[in-house]
Amino acid sequence: MEAKHTPETFEQGWAARPFAEQFPELPADRAAWLDRLNVGITDMLLSGLMTDSAADAARNKKFPKIVSQELAKARRAAKATQ
Fold it and tell me: Are 55 and 38 in contact (CB under 8 A)?
């Protein structure tokens, strides 16, 4: 799936590469957190705890916004240390 809120696209869902691999500029703890959120959305959907429409909103609106915010923070921090 493609993110709508980031200039880049990113993988999400059960077959996604880890966020640390997709975006090496992310701090390890934040990349791991994004991985846990990604797995959590999938697990909740597959277990019936989340509706298809809620998963769609998470995958296409809310999660991309969170990823975008984390990338912006990481990139600002990288610029500040240059």
Answer: no
First vs last C-alpha separation in the chain? 33
Each residue's pLDDT, cut to its tens digit, for the chain (82 residues) gives: 444 444 578 999 999 999 999 999 999 999 999 999 999 999 999 999 999 999 999 999 999 999 999 999 999 999 998 8
Q: Whole-prediction pTM value?
A: 0.87
Q: Report the Cα 24 to chain-centroid distance in Å.
A: 13
Residues 17-28: b if buried by 16+ CB within 10 A, e if exposed: eebbebbeebee
